Fold these 2 entries.
Entry 1:
Amino acid sequence: MQRPLPRRPGEGLTRGFPAVLSLVSAFAIWELYVRVSGISPLVLPAPSRVLDQMVLNRAILWHNTVPTVKATLAGFSLSLTVAFVFSVVLDFTPRVRRALLPIFVVSQTLPLVAIAPLVVLWFGFDLTPKILLVTLVTFFPMLVALLDGYAATDPEIEDLLRAMGASRRTVFRRARLPSAMPYFFAGLRISITYAVVAAIFAEYVGARAGLGIVILNAKNSFRPDLVLAAVVISSALTLVLFAITALLQRIFLRWRDLGDGR
Amino acid sequence: MSILEMKNVGVTLGNTAVLDDISMRVAEGEFISILGPSGAGKSTIFRLLTGALQHDRGAITCNGRPLAQNQQGFAFMPQRDALMPWRRILDNLTLGLEVQGMTRKDARDRVMLFLHDFGLIGFEQHYPAQLSGGMRQRAALLRTVVQARPVQLLDEPFGALDALTRTRMQKWFEERWRDARWTTVLVTHDVREAVALSDRIYVLSCRPACVIAEVAVPTARPRMDRAITAEAHALEAHLLDILLNQTGDQI
Ligand SMILES: Nc1ncnc2c1ncn2[C@@H]1O[C@H](COP(=O)(O)OP(=O)(O)OP(=O)(O)O)[C@@H](O)[C@H]1O
Ligand SMILES: [Mg+2]
């Protein structure tokens, strides 16, 4: 019985247009500059050359993209699960919250450059250290987003539920959790971009395959065009993941898009 | 026996003495109104009853037992509607029943019976943000009465309605009340509303609040159907005089 909400047709297209335009012109200027200045492709390759290289090396690139995607998704899923579990525990037990939150804050102060090689040293060149590093980077923002979201619950709604005889658990499920959803999705959109970067960095430090390895090898053999090819793929990957979270947000937070209906 | 009784209740919030000395009792099936100037502490009384606040002095009892042991709960309508923006109207309306343990389906069937009377037909699937202020208020009132608890606490339920809708809702509410005899405590600014609906009226002073008058309304029911009687008129004038001249209002 759910009615579709009114949407202006073609809205997405019109809104996306300026972004596409600025992106295309940036690449056009870059291409033009490389051609006019005659700069060596070993220093700054033109976008067209990067594209050529992507097509030429598509098998290798694909082979190395898969592990990165795996590490990102596995690490991010783990991070979400752990962040959610901890957020619930901390919300229900202020004492545990006071005990653990400082530790989590400290975990965020560790420089990735120092930690990544250690984690690789301890856990080897397989998927495990990548998953751990992605989790380390994205766990805290997700936890904070959820905790802030719970705290932003309208106290009148909580009072109302309690007056109805609701238990602490019911108040959490009916009021605090749904109130946290906008915060959760805001955190999700930011963290997912960190996740890709963290996975690539973890590979860069030590891995058998992955976009990080492509970048490392290309850098060592003075191939900026291949470095940029890997960068393009990682950006595309991030954008796709970002778009998926935006889509999920649209579906789960439909009620928030109704402000002007009043 | 009184279903609800407050004896010399006082509350201080931070450095503000909000309630000074509040004593009132509500008998089963009685309709009580609390009248008082803005900021007197009317909503605070409800926050005490629903357990959102603890009182510092005095005693509150339900059926002779301390409030904390009251298992039945109250059907409470907050001053602001407190509709959940993420739930469709229908799901907001069933909230109280679901918390009581009713299945969603049964709760919906029950709520559906009232939609027409509350002028919410066709809006079940809307979100609160898509409703007018008056409709939201009606939804909040329906969410309250559908719970069928032994005591209802209504904090200015008709406050946000336009005059026409308000009169219609008051009339409807009186009819329903005559059928169901819900024990009701109504907070209002509106003297006419208090006289039209109540058995007894308590008038509060300005903050820190104490009860400065207790007035019984003897007029026969139903009252909303007919023209206002001379008796009711005199009572309104009397209450208005108390509110304007004896609440200690500095304005
Ligand atoms: N947490 C608090 N700390 C200090 N003072 C408070 C607190 N909560 C409420 N008050 C004060 O208590 C007084 C009574 O508030 P309350 O909401 O009960 O008034 P009210 O009678 O319902 O007013 P209105 O008719 O405008 O709704 C107000 O003057 C308010 O400033
Ligand atoms: Mg109030």
Entry 2:
Amino acid sequence: MSLKHDIEFTLNGVKRRATIDITMNALDMLREVIGLTGTKYGCGEGECGACTIQVDGVSLNSCLMFAVDCDGRNVTTIEGLANDGKGDALRDAFVEHGAVQCGFCTPGMMMQADHLLHKHEHPDEACVKRGLEGNLCRCTGYKKIVDAVVACGAAEATP
Amino acid sequence: MTELKHYFAPTSLDQAVERLKDGDVTILAGGTDLTPQSQAGRIKFKHTLMNIRHIPQLSGITLEGREIRIGALATITEIMEHPLIKERLPVLVEACDHFASDQIRNAGTIGGNICNASPAGDMLIPLLVLDACVELASMPEAKIYRHCMPLSTFFVGPGKTRKSLCELVTGVRIPIPEANHVARFYKHGTRPALDISTISIGIAGTLVDGSLSNVRVAFGAVAPTPTRAAQTEQALEGQRLDEATIDKVAAIARDEVKPIDDVRATAWYRKEMIHNITKRILSHVAQA
Ligand SMILES: Cc1cc2nc3c(=O)[nH]c(=O)nc-3n(C[C@H](O)[C@H](O)[C@H](O)COP(=O)(O)OP(=O)(O)OC[C@H]3O[C@@H](n4cnc5c(N)ncnc54)[C@H](O)[C@@H]3O)c2cc1C
Ligand code: FES
Ligand code: FES
């Protein structure tokens, strides 16, 4: 039997407890233990960004994180961003610019873009491209995604 | 099956090194190496998985006398954005800038990069040319024992270091370079992001009147460990950086490295790249 451990953390603003396998990664915990399937499994090894979440205010790949390491920390997933005003603006920008095709990369893209917009209020194209380097998209060719994030940052600039 | 029996998340250095006494502990920092390595079965867990995240003594970037101390838990992003590092150790920022992706820079730590001891570890080359020392802590008797080891003697093979199983890396110490110190880092890969170095080069020294002294040269991904290049250093020491010297030194560098063929490049290509990039870096330094 594999070793289990109880953890307690804040998930999308709400305190949660979970009993998890010590060797499990945070992505498997979110999808299979907690049942939040917005965060996607693409590669499982840090290459694609589909599993991007935010922990204590920074973005990271949940497939490269031990689930036990969520203990005591503040975790936000795409489901949390969806309930946030900031998430609305970003989602609208993605829709307007046609930045979603199959949609598989979108949750990871949105989580990373949200982090980027927190760090750089009005990012230009180069800054957005740099920030999204760790996210792969097989459909859009990236241009529309980059346009959407730049537009979202620019819109926030005008009150 | 894993032999894992315990999970432990110490909140002080004392607790951590006490637990390390039996040496049967797998240390977890950011997890960006440990997660994929354990899931692919490339490493086997010891009896205890110890998460070091909550040990305050392992964090922070501080000025201590004539040294800069970077705590083992400092992430690549924290190092890249820290004012002290930007001002005094810009070559480290250069290495951070070419490291993986934003998500991995936000999670990966300098301590993890050092202990993973990859021949292609990107922080290791600039740390070598900056004369960095690794801070180690253990508890041989009842009290913490701390000492420092030059990074240049720390690595013994791919994934292998001189750190004993009972030791924890608590940080890295870097002497503050003098005003006329120059240091350069170059990472060669096939794409800008998320690439493992095909080769990397660090060159540093004191530049006075066009001559380089106290020369340090280190190469990544051309040997079982990141290494200093003694012959190349010697050939450069005290020399004026004119065209003839640069050509000679680049040729010595090419002959000094003994890379292997692998999926990322052939040995021949790596030797050519070492030659060409050494030449390029030295020409830039000469013009600076
Ligand atoms: C997709 C991908 C891309 C990557 N790109 C790069 C890159 O461009 N350049 C590069 O250099 N690396 C790269 N890496 C490797 C990795 O991200 C780095 O080596 C990182 O710095 C590891 O830090 P960590 O905190 O995540 O280490 P962890 O995974 O937590 O630990 C790594 C190893 O060090 C040990 N350890 C960690 N901290 C300590 C300590 N304080 N004392 C003793 N032992 C310790 C652990 O037991 C483990 O064996 C990449 C990894 C992935 C998955
Ligand atoms: S699933 Fe985590 S980066 Fe691809
Ligand atoms: S929209 Fe299909 S992968 Fe990006």
